[in-house]
Design a protein that fits this description.
The protein is of the alpha/beta class. It has helices at 6-13, 17-26, 44-58, 63-66, 71-80, 84-100, 104-118, 120-141, 146-166, 189-200, 214-224, 242-252, 282-291; strands at residues 33-34, 40-41, 176-182, 204-212, 228-233, 257-262, 276-279.
Protein backbone atom coordinates (compact mmCIF):
# COMPACT_ATOMS: atom_id res chain seq x y z
CA UNK A 1 0.00 0.00 0.00
CA UNK A 2 1.22 3.48 -0.89
CA UNK A 3 1.29 5.99 1.96
CA UNK A 4 0.24 9.49 0.95
CA UNK A 5 0.77 12.67 2.94
CA UNK A 6 -1.91 15.30 3.31
CA UNK A 7 0.14 17.44 0.91
CA UNK A 8 -0.05 14.64 -1.67
CA UNK A 9 -3.83 14.62 -1.32
CA UNK A 10 -3.88 18.39 -1.78
CA UNK A 11 -1.77 18.22 -4.93
CA UNK A 12 -3.72 15.35 -6.45
CA UNK A 13 -7.22 16.57 -5.60
CA UNK A 14 -6.88 20.33 -5.58
CA UNK A 15 -8.41 20.49 -2.09
CA UNK A 16 -6.32 22.52 0.35
CA UNK A 17 -4.74 20.61 3.24
CA UNK A 18 -6.48 22.95 5.70
CA UNK A 19 -9.86 22.03 4.19
CA UNK A 20 -9.05 18.32 4.29
CA UNK A 21 -8.26 18.59 8.01
CA UNK A 22 -11.58 20.36 8.65
CA UNK A 23 -13.43 17.64 6.74
CA UNK A 24 -11.70 14.99 8.83
CA UNK A 25 -12.92 16.67 12.01
CA UNK A 26 -16.50 17.19 10.85
CA UNK A 27 -17.24 14.19 8.64
CA UNK A 28 -16.58 10.47 8.55
CA UNK A 29 -15.51 9.76 4.98
CA UNK A 30 -11.75 10.17 5.66
CA UNK A 31 -9.97 8.07 8.28
CA UNK A 32 -6.20 8.60 8.06
CA UNK A 33 -3.80 6.30 9.84
CA UNK A 34 -0.80 7.44 11.87
CA UNK A 35 2.82 6.41 12.02
CA UNK A 36 4.62 5.46 15.23
CA UNK A 37 5.64 9.11 15.51
CA UNK A 38 1.98 10.21 15.21
CA UNK A 39 2.23 11.59 11.66
CA UNK A 40 -0.96 11.09 9.68
CA UNK A 41 -0.86 9.28 6.35
CA UNK A 42 -3.48 8.20 3.84
CA UNK A 43 -4.08 4.95 1.99
CA UNK A 44 -4.99 4.22 -1.63
CA UNK A 45 -8.65 4.09 -0.59
CA UNK A 46 -8.37 7.48 1.12
CA UNK A 47 -6.93 8.92 -2.09
CA UNK A 48 -9.80 7.49 -4.16
CA UNK A 49 -12.28 8.92 -1.68
CA UNK A 50 -10.86 12.44 -1.77
CA UNK A 51 -10.61 12.40 -5.58
CA UNK A 52 -14.29 11.47 -5.93
CA UNK A 53 -15.43 13.88 -3.25
CA UNK A 54 -13.40 16.76 -4.69
CA UNK A 55 -15.01 16.44 -8.11
CA UNK A 56 -18.54 16.16 -6.70
CA UNK A 57 -17.95 19.18 -4.48
CA UNK A 58 -16.55 21.18 -7.39
CA UNK A 59 -19.63 20.47 -9.48
CA UNK A 60 -22.28 21.41 -6.96
CA UNK A 61 -22.63 18.74 -4.26
CA UNK A 62 -22.46 19.93 -0.66
CA UNK A 63 -20.00 18.13 1.59
CA UNK A 64 -22.70 17.48 4.18
CA UNK A 65 -24.72 15.73 1.48
CA UNK A 66 -21.75 13.73 0.19
CA UNK A 67 -20.98 12.58 3.73
CA UNK A 68 -24.35 10.78 3.86
CA UNK A 69 -23.70 8.83 0.66
CA UNK A 70 -22.33 5.31 0.49
CA UNK A 71 -19.14 4.63 -1.48
CA UNK A 72 -21.28 3.15 -4.26
CA UNK A 73 -23.51 6.25 -4.35
CA UNK A 74 -20.50 8.56 -4.57
CA UNK A 75 -19.06 6.56 -7.46
CA UNK A 76 -22.44 6.55 -9.21
CA UNK A 77 -22.82 10.33 -8.89
CA UNK A 78 -19.32 10.89 -10.26
CA UNK A 79 -20.11 8.65 -13.25
CA UNK A 80 -23.29 10.66 -13.92
CA UNK A 81 -21.53 14.02 -14.26
CA UNK A 82 -22.11 15.16 -17.83
CA UNK A 83 -20.28 18.48 -18.14
CA UNK A 84 -17.23 18.20 -20.40
CA UNK A 85 -14.88 19.52 -17.74
CA UNK A 86 -16.27 17.13 -15.15
CA UNK A 87 -15.88 14.16 -17.48
CA UNK A 88 -12.28 15.08 -18.20
CA UNK A 89 -11.47 15.36 -14.49
CA UNK A 90 -13.24 12.08 -13.80
CA UNK A 91 -11.12 10.27 -16.39
CA UNK A 92 -7.89 11.77 -14.99
CA UNK A 93 -8.98 10.72 -11.49
CA UNK A 94 -9.68 7.20 -12.73
CA UNK A 95 -6.20 6.99 -14.24
CA UNK A 96 -4.68 8.06 -10.92
CA UNK A 97 -6.71 5.41 -9.11
CA UNK A 98 -5.67 2.73 -11.60
CA UNK A 99 -2.05 3.79 -11.17
CA UNK A 100 -2.01 3.47 -7.37
CA UNK A 101 -3.74 0.06 -7.63
CA UNK A 102 -1.30 -1.17 -10.29
CA UNK A 103 -4.32 -1.93 -12.47
CA UNK A 104 -2.51 -1.78 -15.80
CA UNK A 105 -5.35 -3.42 -17.72
CA UNK A 106 -7.83 -0.86 -16.44
CA UNK A 107 -5.39 1.98 -17.10
CA UNK A 108 -4.78 0.91 -20.69
CA UNK A 109 -8.48 0.23 -21.29
CA UNK A 110 -9.35 3.81 -20.31
CA UNK A 111 -6.69 5.24 -22.62
CA UNK A 112 -7.66 3.00 -25.54
CA UNK A 113 -11.33 3.93 -25.17
CA UNK A 114 -10.54 7.65 -25.11
CA UNK A 115 -8.15 7.41 -28.08
CA UNK A 116 -10.72 5.46 -30.12
CA UNK A 117 -13.42 8.03 -29.34
CA UNK A 118 -11.43 11.28 -29.54
CA UNK A 119 -8.09 10.63 -31.25
CA UNK A 120 -4.62 10.68 -29.75
CA UNK A 121 -4.12 14.48 -29.91
CA UNK A 122 -7.23 15.32 -27.88
CA UNK A 123 -6.31 12.62 -25.37
CA UNK A 124 -2.81 14.10 -25.09
CA UNK A 125 -4.14 17.61 -24.44
CA UNK A 126 -7.21 16.84 -22.34
CA UNK A 127 -6.16 13.70 -20.44
CA UNK A 128 -2.47 12.83 -20.50
CA UNK A 129 -1.00 16.28 -19.84
CA UNK A 130 -3.41 16.99 -16.94
CA UNK A 131 -2.61 13.52 -15.57
CA UNK A 132 1.12 14.35 -15.62
CA UNK A 133 0.49 17.71 -13.97
CA UNK A 134 -1.31 15.99 -11.11
CA UNK A 135 1.15 13.17 -10.47
CA UNK A 136 4.37 15.04 -11.28
CA UNK A 137 4.64 16.26 -7.68
CA UNK A 138 4.66 12.64 -6.48
CA UNK A 139 7.68 11.98 -8.68
CA UNK A 140 9.38 15.03 -7.21
CA UNK A 141 8.77 14.00 -3.60
CA UNK A 142 9.28 10.26 -4.09
CA UNK A 143 5.79 9.53 -2.77
CA UNK A 144 5.09 7.05 -5.52
CA UNK A 145 6.38 3.52 -5.84
CA UNK A 146 8.77 3.11 -8.82
CA UNK A 147 6.67 0.14 -9.99
CA UNK A 148 3.59 2.35 -10.19
CA UNK A 149 5.53 4.93 -12.12
CA UNK A 150 7.16 2.52 -14.58
CA UNK A 151 4.01 0.55 -15.35
CA UNK A 152 2.03 3.74 -15.95
CA UNK A 153 4.62 5.59 -18.01
CA UNK A 154 5.44 2.59 -20.19
CA UNK A 155 1.80 2.25 -21.23
CA UNK A 156 1.57 5.93 -22.11
CA UNK A 157 4.95 5.83 -23.85
CA UNK A 158 3.74 3.01 -26.10
CA UNK A 159 0.64 4.98 -27.07
CA UNK A 160 2.69 8.10 -27.79
CA UNK A 161 5.26 6.30 -29.94
CA UNK A 162 2.47 4.75 -32.01
CA UNK A 163 0.85 8.18 -32.30
CA UNK A 164 4.14 9.80 -33.38
CA UNK A 165 4.77 7.08 -35.95
CA UNK A 166 1.28 7.45 -37.41
CA UNK A 167 1.13 11.25 -37.28
CA UNK A 168 0.54 12.83 -40.69
CA UNK A 169 1.15 16.58 -40.83
CA UNK A 170 -1.93 18.66 -41.58
CA UNK A 171 0.20 21.84 -41.86
CA UNK A 172 3.82 22.69 -42.59
CA UNK A 173 5.52 24.77 -39.92
CA UNK A 174 8.78 26.11 -41.34
CA UNK A 175 10.52 25.82 -38.00
CA UNK A 176 12.87 23.23 -36.51
CA UNK A 177 13.08 22.02 -32.91
CA UNK A 178 15.74 20.25 -30.87
CA UNK A 179 14.18 18.20 -28.05
CA UNK A 180 16.21 16.76 -25.18
CA UNK A 181 16.37 16.23 -21.42
CA UNK A 182 19.42 16.98 -19.27
CA UNK A 183 21.59 14.38 -17.57
CA UNK A 184 19.83 12.30 -14.88
CA UNK A 185 16.40 13.36 -16.14
CA UNK A 186 14.75 10.21 -17.49
CA UNK A 187 11.06 11.19 -17.62
CA UNK A 188 10.69 11.73 -21.35
CA UNK A 189 6.91 11.51 -21.67
CA UNK A 190 6.42 15.28 -21.62
CA UNK A 191 9.02 15.53 -24.37
CA UNK A 192 7.29 12.82 -26.41
CA UNK A 193 3.97 14.64 -26.08
CA UNK A 194 5.48 17.77 -27.58
CA UNK A 195 7.22 15.68 -30.25
CA UNK A 196 3.81 14.44 -31.37
CA UNK A 197 2.27 17.93 -31.41
CA UNK A 198 5.16 19.31 -33.45
CA UNK A 199 5.22 16.42 -35.93
CA UNK A 200 1.47 16.67 -36.43
CA UNK A 201 1.96 20.29 -37.43
CA UNK A 202 4.78 19.56 -39.84
CA UNK A 203 7.70 20.96 -37.86
CA UNK A 204 11.16 19.44 -38.26
CA UNK A 205 12.13 17.71 -35.00
CA UNK A 206 15.56 16.57 -33.82
CA UNK A 207 14.73 14.29 -30.90
CA UNK A 208 17.75 13.16 -28.90
CA UNK A 209 15.82 11.98 -25.85
CA UNK A 210 16.52 11.74 -22.13
CA UNK A 211 19.66 11.91 -19.98
CA UNK A 212 21.65 13.91 -22.55
CA UNK A 213 24.92 15.65 -21.58
CA UNK A 214 24.72 19.33 -22.41
CA UNK A 215 27.80 19.10 -24.63
CA UNK A 216 25.99 16.52 -26.79
CA UNK A 217 22.95 18.76 -27.13
CA UNK A 218 25.30 21.60 -28.04
CA UNK A 219 26.92 19.40 -30.70
CA UNK A 220 23.58 18.69 -32.39
CA UNK A 221 22.50 22.31 -32.08
CA UNK A 222 25.69 23.58 -33.68
CA UNK A 223 25.28 21.24 -36.65
CA UNK A 224 21.50 21.28 -37.21
CA UNK A 225 20.96 24.91 -36.14
CA UNK A 226 17.36 24.51 -34.86
CA UNK A 227 15.10 27.51 -34.45
CA UNK A 228 14.03 26.33 -31.01
CA UNK A 229 15.26 24.06 -28.23
CA UNK A 230 12.58 22.47 -26.05
CA UNK A 231 13.17 20.92 -22.60
CA UNK A 232 10.50 19.50 -20.28
CA UNK A 233 11.55 18.81 -16.68
CA UNK A 234 9.30 16.35 -14.85
CA UNK A 235 11.36 14.95 -11.97
CA UNK A 236 14.87 16.28 -11.59
CA UNK A 237 17.45 14.52 -9.42
CA UNK A 238 17.97 15.72 -5.80
CA UNK A 239 21.25 17.44 -6.67
CA UNK A 240 19.90 19.19 -9.76
CA UNK A 241 20.53 22.96 -9.71
CA UNK A 242 17.99 24.54 -12.06
CA UNK A 243 19.62 27.97 -11.93
CA UNK A 244 23.00 26.50 -12.89
CA UNK A 245 21.48 24.34 -15.63
CA UNK A 246 19.61 27.33 -17.06
CA UNK A 247 22.71 29.48 -17.40
CA UNK A 248 24.93 26.65 -18.67
CA UNK A 249 22.34 25.87 -21.34
CA UNK A 250 22.17 29.49 -22.45
CA UNK A 251 25.97 29.66 -22.53
CA UNK A 252 26.38 26.55 -24.68
CA UNK A 253 23.22 26.86 -26.82
CA UNK A 254 23.00 30.58 -27.36
CA UNK A 255 21.45 30.99 -30.81
CA UNK A 256 18.06 29.20 -30.70
CA UNK A 257 15.11 30.23 -28.58
CA UNK A 258 15.05 27.93 -25.54
CA UNK A 259 11.63 26.83 -24.27
CA UNK A 260 11.42 25.12 -20.88
CA UNK A 261 8.38 23.66 -19.18
CA UNK A 262 7.76 21.48 -16.15
CA UNK A 263 7.78 21.59 -12.37
CA UNK A 264 11.00 23.61 -11.72
CA UNK A 265 9.64 26.55 -13.74
CA UNK A 266 6.53 27.08 -11.59
CA UNK A 267 8.11 28.93 -8.70
CA UNK A 268 11.02 30.53 -10.54
CA UNK A 269 10.98 34.28 -9.84
CA UNK A 270 14.27 35.57 -11.29
CA UNK A 271 14.64 37.36 -14.60
CA UNK A 272 15.10 35.00 -17.53
CA UNK A 273 17.88 35.22 -20.11
CA UNK A 274 16.60 36.98 -23.22
CA UNK A 275 16.42 33.80 -25.34
CA UNK A 276 14.59 31.70 -22.71
CA UNK A 277 10.83 31.40 -22.20
CA UNK A 278 8.82 29.24 -19.81
CA UNK A 279 5.59 27.50 -20.75
CA UNK A 280 3.60 26.46 -17.72
CA UNK A 281 0.75 24.48 -19.27
CA UNK A 282 -0.29 22.44 -22.27
CA UNK A 283 -2.56 25.32 -23.28
CA UNK A 284 0.42 27.68 -23.45
CA UNK A 285 2.41 25.14 -25.46
CA UNK A 286 -0.38 24.53 -27.95
CA UNK A 287 -0.98 28.27 -28.35
CA UNK A 288 2.73 28.82 -28.97
CA UNK A 289 2.98 26.02 -31.54
CA UNK A 290 -0.20 27.24 -33.27
CA UNK A 291 1.24 30.75 -33.52
CA UNK A 292 4.25 29.63 -35.58
Amino acid sequence: MTKFTIKDLENLSGIKAHTIRIWEQRYSFLKPSRTDTNIRYYSNDDLKTILNISILNKYGYKISHINKMSVHDVQARVAELNLAGAQQERIVNELIQMMVDLDTQGFEKILDKQIAANGIEKVIIRIIFPFFDRIGILWQTGHINPAQEHLTTNIIRQKLIVGIDQARPVLKIKRSFLLFLPEREHHELGLLLVYYLLKKRGAEVFYIGANVPLKDAQFVSDIKKPDFVYIHLTSTSPGFNFEKFLHQTVEKISRPKIIISGFPTYGYKRSLPKNVVFKHSIVELVEFISSL
